[in-house]
Every structure is written in structure tokens, then in C-alpha cells.
């Protein structure tokens, strides 16, 4: 493995040269710098500035021919003081975590059976997973409103069949929110899991059975540990966007499900307090990046640097 | 032929066979993979199933392990029918082709895997794993992951893992197929040493005849789902019972002819190339079509007519000798193989050991040569 990778790398190096390789790597680096790091720095700068009557003051100002930098950390301080922000952060993380776990529970069996199905049937199943992407995301989330409303399809059907006496409130509850989030994000869990499980060497399972493991033990001892990287990749793809999700909570969530995306929107566009909004955003990025960094470090250590 | 091995009689006698395979059949849809194979294996034997890919040998092995269910037939291990048992219920362990080591577990945990599944107490697991690591001399690698080991080391971990539970039967699927040629030769004997030290009965599957002949006490040659011949390596090589076996094991020159004289102690056969004298009786009749098989290394080659061939006392004078031109030669260092083109354009192969540094014969392309052989070195194949 290692030697094969090395020789391929050296062939590529000969073909395009070390300089060419650096250019190829530099293009996405420059792109990320331009569209991610620079805007983030701008946001970070705004978060340290002070609000004026209508607009925020620039961090740098000219006073008596001297450039003065005024940093205001008060926004970060008030974040820790106001329970609104803390609750919104905790609630976002909780909802994202529940969504991730539910997605994992649904996606793992799905990806498993997809990967174990006959090879000629897999492309069709894969297509089914991606089918929802063919219609507008907003339209699909809106459809859930019709289904879950008090006089929606589910309640009316259950009433007609006499299963319930009065409509069950499903819309604008944590239930409808998590349902909508899981529905939207489950393909992002399925795809990395499938990609991982389909590559698995099935002889390892035979070896486990041969050594006395029941099929169930073989699944937990061999399949699950070997699909760890797929589980982690899928969980990140679901968890990270879920924390900052704005549209689904707006459409399907309710008063109990205040998420940080909504707070952010309010600060920017209702309160018009850009420095405050910017600090909310910076803290959110920090909250997501820190666990990510831990995951990466753990991955690198447990595999000895191998992917 | 007098020394033909009966397919159902084991070479070693002594009590009931340890593993009995009775008329086992395996069909995949309509394709017959294993066709009524019966086989008896004694305790402590190393038995090799030898055949080219798709001959059914792997399917047979997988039925022993429990990964395939026979369409019909019986497998008795120490008298107990194991066909209905799941792989994890059988006292059988397998060393897989290219090992199938668990990549996420250390060497130690790989070997302990089966012991933990049996619910063995922790201190006993540690003791057994230690013994296994000693056996394969990998003690210092216990904490490594499989990908940090060389191919030969991985092979030894796989062996230790399959022996850890002290199985009644050890299955080896192409045990050395993943190793390079030089390492393979050394490992063959090492593997046999360890298996004999443990004393486990062993069934191996291989397509490599050298591997089978080096390691096995007996070999079963398979083709198209059937076992064609069972015997010790020397029996299979020296007295093959059919054209397929003669041709599959080593290389062989085949002359097709008809029986002329069928005496109890000798036979003569006429073929287009020459007349054959066979110094043993065969089960056949005069006028019957047969194949005469002669191994290349049993033949002699020389430019002039050999002296002893002129003596009238020899019963074989005028028999078992052909004339031709050296068409091609392959110098292999220890051996040279000459391709001799006979007058009727048949090409036969003759192998000479290069005992002297510069062979006195110094045969080369285009030389007119005589090729001859003994009547006792000939195998007559009636099938």
C-alpha cells in the first residue's frame, strides 16, 4: 500500500513537477482564503466594534492624525450573561445532536443493505437516495407543513379512521423540527456510510464467523468499527449544518425550538446590531470547530496517520 | 495399472477416518461445482486439494468451513455430521486466502478474537495468545496492527489466529499464495513444522502443485468438480491414473498408440513416433487405444546411438527410442529442457540436469539427436 502510493506520487511529481503540484494545491487554498477566511475575519472585526446610532463604528478610526484601534469585547461578554444566547446555543447543539443520532439510526441499516444488495441493483438504490435533491428543498419542507398541520393529511386520516378523537399537535413542535431536519439531512449520512460499507472486505466477516462470532457479534465487532470513518464523516456532514440551520426551524419549528440561526437573523435584521450578530456567529463557528479538531486529532492518532 | 490408488481408501489405515466426506454435491443454480465427492482423511494428515481455478476445490473447502451448504451429501467430523452446523458452531478454523486479518485490531487482539467469542477467562486468553505468539515467533509484534507487518509476518499471524482455538480441523485456503516465490519455499516447510508440532488435521486448497507436493501427506487432484486421483505426492507424480493428472502435475510427453502384445509382465505399444516396450502389465486388451506417458526427466538424450542399445541382450532394443532435431532449448540453470522435433513433426520435451559446469554433451540448436527411455519409466494411461 505505502509503496504503491509512493510510486504513484513520484510518477505524478515527474509529470507535472513539484512546482506544478504546488500550484494545484494552491488554487483551492487561495479560493478558501478568499471566500471563507477573509469574510470570517471581516465578521470577526465587526464583532469587536461598537454600535453607533444606525451603523457600527469601524474598529480603526482616525483621531488627531493618529490611527486608533478600538476593540470592544462587550458583545462576547453579554453573550455569556444573557440566557437567551446560551439557551439558543444549547438548544441548537441538542437538536443537531438528536438529528444526527436519528439520521445515523435510519441511515446505517439503509446504507448497509444497499451495500450488501446485488451490485447491479445498487445504482438504482443510490438514485433513490438522491431523488429528493431533484425538487426544491423549500417545496419539500413546505410539503411537511401540509402533512403535519392540525388539519393536515396525517391528522385528517387518523381522525377519519377513528384512531384519534381530536387533532394531535405536530406542527411547530420539536417533533416536526427534528422530523424535517432528519428528512433533509439523511442522504448526507447515507452516502458516506454507503461508500464506506461497500468497500468492506466481506471475508473479514467470514473470518469472524469462522472464529466463533455469531453474525450479530461479527456486525458489532467487525463491521461497525471498520465503518467508523464513514460514521464520523456522515455525522459531521449532518451535525455541522444542523447547528446553524435557519430555514427548517423557521418553517417547521416552534417557540420551544429557538435555534442560534434565528437569533443571528434577529440580531442582524431586526435589532440591526451587527457587532452583536457577528459575535454570535464567531462563537458558533468556534463551537463547531473545536469538536471537529478533536475528532481529526483522534482519527490521526488511532489510524497512525493512515486515512 | 497395478498401483492405482482407489479413490475411497485412505493411504494410512488405522481405525475410522477422522473426516469423512460422503457423496457431497454442490450446485449453484444449475452449475455443478462439486460432483459427488467422497473423501476420507485420517487424524494428523495434511491433505491437499489440488486443481486449477474453478475446479470446485474452494467450494469443497467452504463447505467444510460452513460458508456453503451442500446440495446433498454428508460431512462427518469425528463421527458427527456437521452439515447442519453454522460456521461459528464448528470446531474448525480456517486460514483465509490473503489472511483476512482484522485491520482495526492488533496482532494480539486478532489472535484473541476467537478465544473471547468462546467466553474464555481473561488470564487463560492471555496465556493462550502468548503460546501462539511463541509458536509463530511474533512475540515482539503483539501490539502492531496488521498493516505494519510484512507479508510473511501477516501469514504467521493468520496461522496463529486459526490455531488459537485448537481446532479439530484446520483449513488452509491457498496458504502461501500471497507470498513471493523465495519466501514461499521457506514458509512451506515452516508451516508444515508448526502444523505437525500442533498435531492438527489439515485440509488445504492450492493451485500450486509444488506447494501441494512439499506440504501434503496426500493430494487429491480435482477437475470439474470431481476428484480424479488421491495419493501420496510420489504416487500422483509417478503413477498418474489419467491423462489430466499426468499433464496437470509436472510436464509429460504423451504418445498415442495401440496395444500390440499384452503379456502379463510386459506390453508393447505401437505409436506413430516409435514402438513402446512397457516392462509391467496393464489392464487392457490387444488393439486397445492407449496413451503412453513419459516424464521429460526420465528420458536420455545424446548425439550418437547409445552403446547399450546395440546389445541384443536388452529386451527393449529397437523400442522406446526416437530420433529428432533440437528445435529449441530452455536453459534454466540447474536444468536444461530440450524441445526435440521428431520426423513426424511432434515435439517432445527432454530435461537434463546440468551436473557438470559445462556439459560434455554441449547439445545445441539443430543437432541431430537420439532420445530414449526405459520401459519401467513409462506410464500407460487407458482413460
Description:
The complex is a heterodimer of chains A (307) and B (383). Residues 1-5 of chain A have low confidence and may be disordered. Chain A has helices at 2-47, 74-81, 83-116, 122-130, 137-148, 153-160, 174-198, 203-210, 215-226, 228-243, 247-252, 260-270, 274-302, and strands at residues 60-63, 66-69. In chain A, 73% of the residues lie in helices and 3% in strands. With 307 residues, chain A is mostly helical. Chain B is α+β, with helices and mostly antiparallel strands. Helix content of chain B is 22%, strand content 32%. Chain B is built from eight helices and 20 strands. Chain B has a six-stranded mixed sheet, with helices on both faces. In chain B, strand 1 (19-28) and strand 2 form a beta hairpin. Classes of the chains: A mainly alpha (307), B alpha+beta (383).
Secondary structure elements and their pairing?
The complex is a heterodimer of chains A (307) and B (383).
Chain A (H helix, E strand, L loop, with lengths): L1 H46 L12 E4 L2 E4 L4 H8 L1 H34 L5 H9 L6 H12 L4 H8 L13 H25 L4 H8 L4 H12 L1 H16 L3 H6 L7 H11 L3 H29 L5
Antiparallel strand pairs in A: 1-2
Helix pairs in contact in A: 1-13, 3-7, 3-10, 7-10, 8-9, 10-13, 12-13
Chain B lengths: L18 E10 L2 E11 L4 E5 L6 H9 L6 E6 L2 E2 L10 E4 L11 H11 L4 H14 L15 H13 L5 E5 L7 H18 L2 E6 L2 H7 L2 E6 L2 E6 L1 H6 L4 H6 L4 E10 L4 E4 L4 E4 L10 E6 L5 E3 L18 E11 L3 E8 L4 E7 L14 E5 L6 E3 L2
Parallel strand pairs in B: 3-8, 3-9, 6-7, 7-8
Antiparallel strand pairs in B: 1-2, 1-4, 4-5, 9-10, 11-12, 11-14, 12-13, 14-20, 15-19, 16-17, 16-19, 17-18
Helix pairs in contact in B: 2-3, 2-4, 3-4
